[in-house]
Structures are given as C-alpha cells and as structure tokens.
Specification:
Blueprint (H helix, E strand, L loop, with lengths): L6 H25 L17 H17 L4 H37 L15 H23 L1
Helix pairs in contact: 1-2, 1-4, 2-3, 2-4
Length: about 140
C-alpha cells in the first residue's frame, strides 16, 4: 500500500512549524537567550502562525487546483477571515486583557492573573502571510518533481 501525503496538509503544517520556529528565534534574540521554548506553542508574536498556515493552504490550492475554483475562493475567504481576526478581534481583546491585568496588579488583587494573548500587529500578520506564500510555493514546486 502506497502512503499518500497531501501537499495541502504538508504546506499548512510546514508553514505553522516554520512560523513557530521563527517566533522562537525572534523571542530569543529579543531576550538575548535561547531559553524561549514557550514560543514553540504559544499564540501571538512575530510572525503570525495563523496567517502563515492559511495563506500556505490557499496558495497551494490556488497553484494545484487553480484560482478560479470554488475551493480556492473558500480558502482565500477563510484566510482573510483568520487574518482579520488575528489583527482586529484578537488584538483588541488582548489589549483589553493587558489593561485588566494592569488593574489587578495596581489593586494588589489576590486574583491569579490570566495569561494575556495579544493577537497580532499588522507586521506580524504580513510576515506570516509572506511566510505562508513562500511555503506554499516551495511545496508546489517540490510536488512537481
């Protein structure tokens, strides 16, 4: 029996893994130490793994199936919604969470403060989208051989 691996899943998974690795590198450089292991699984920061994943998937669908297909339209719309959410909704709720956290600290509250997931800046979303585009292109050209 032949093992069939979907280039769509390879592109999406590869983009996510690469984005998480780059998050680790960026955080390590900022912190000036290589012990930023939480970046391998946390959301937020540079680049957006959500954006990288959905753009890699949409790119691969567009290249393999065509940009005029209903599947590509669905993937492009899905990518737009995910990136909008990361940029606007999650970022806004993250800023509110940071403000709430500061209120708890200022009030010397005994309430255990929650982790604040900040969402993404426009540059983080753009970097993730570019990473996804490149990953989709690499997977496409790798599947041609």
């Amino acid at each position: 029996m032949e093992l069939v691996v979907s280039p769509y899943l390879i592109a999406a998974a590869s983009a996510w893994v690469l984005a998480q690795f780059f998050k680790y590198l960026v955080a390590s450089i900022k912190a000036k130490n290589m012990r930023q292991f939480r970046q391998f699984y946390l959301s937020g920061n540079m680049p957006s793994a959500h954006s990288a994943t959905v753009v890699a998937l949409a790119t691969t669908i567009g290249l393999l199936d065509g940009t005029g297909t209903p599947l590509f339209a669905l993937a492009a719309l899905f990518a737009a919604v995910v990136m909008y959410d990361a940029l606007m909704v999650r970022r806004s709720s993250g800023e509110q969470g940071a403000a709430l956290l500061q209120l708890l600290v200022d009030a010397k509250s005994k309430i255990l403060p929650p982790r604040v997931a900040k969402g993404h800046t426009p540059y983080e979303v753009l970097a993730g989208a570019l990473l996804g585009l490149v990953t989709g292109l690499v997977v496409f050209f790798a599947t041609l051989g």
